[in-house]
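Pipeline run #58 for the internal structure catalog. This entry was flagged by the ingest filter as a single-chain record with no existing model, so it goes straight to prediction. Upstream metadata was stripped on purpose; only the residue string is passed forward. Reviewer on rotation: M.T. Logging verbosity set to normal.
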Amino acid sequence: MIRIREAVVVEGRYDKAALSQVVDTVIIETEGFGIFSNEEKLALLRRLAQARGLVVLTDGDGGGFVIRNFLKGAINPALIKHAYVPDIYGKERRKKSPSKEGKLGVEGMSREVLETAIRRAGATVLDETSEEKAKAPPITKADLYAMGFSGRSDSAARRRKLLKTLGLPERMTANAMLEALNILSSREEIEAIAAEIQK
């Protein structure tokens, strides 16, 4: 398994499951064409692109290229690297029949092919002695409660202030917000913002 700096964008959960066996990084699903209307997820991808860069890894079929081109237009292209899987014809094990174009998607690729695609895209591979911060325990819903961002009469107002401070959309769901906090912030930063809001 390789650790990379950039976050990786894939189409769906099976792609994410396959890729998580190969790379140690944040992997975000577009939920197919769902990304076209999901402003929260698009805002998260833009923030991730700014913070650490993105690698886009979609299927090699027409749909994959539509998603890839949408992301090119929606996010600063200078912050995106593109990984491509080769055209290998066949059928994924979980499917009854091959895709419309008869090609394997990301989920059907071997670990070696996926790693090669990520490396060829120019992803920043981190070694074990890298000075990247050690993985801290993730922020949980219980942490948000303890900091006053949930379960209190003024929690909604506090969440709006937190999201505004971090430059995230105020309409984010609680789960989307939690995911964004764990990707883009540290516990210390969130605690400091909570203390500032408390004043």
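catalog note: The longest helix spans residues 39-52.
catalog note: The radius of gyration is 18 Å.
status: ready for reviewer M.T.
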